[in-house]
Amino acid sequence: MNEIILFIKSDPLWVALALLPLAIIAKNLLGAGHAQQSNQLNWNYLKRGLYKGLLIYTAIAVLSVMAALSNDLSVNINGATLTLVQAVTVVIMGAVAVYVKDIFALFLLIFKQPTTIDENKVIKTESGTYEYREDK
Questions:
Q1: What is the pTM of this model?
Q2: Which of 34, 48, 68, 70 lies 20 to 30 Å (CA to CA) from residue 108?
Q3: Where are the domains of the chain?
Q4: Average confidence score pLDDT of the chain
């Protein structure tokens, strides 16, 4: 296991490719958790989020393979010359940053959500179960 971690840490591209799926999964799990807390969990939204993340990761992985196969190509950005691998790494880290920003926004929503239940809003239904009525 240590050899795998050392191999991934040896190249910024591998670090970025390892971080991206972790960020995608974390965002989707936190989003599902927040929806569950709000009693609005929709499995289709979770599936769409994971599918979207898989598409993004697949496209970036293909782009990374293309960049790794063509080491001699370079990109000039604001006077700085980057190899295609470096440019792809920047794009991937940008995607990770977007996911991390969303993760922090979800953390804030989850932390703000109350954890106590107002007993006056718990009512018994006709079937004998109990429901919690939230204010809209």
A1: 0.71
A2: 48
A3: 2-132
A4: 84
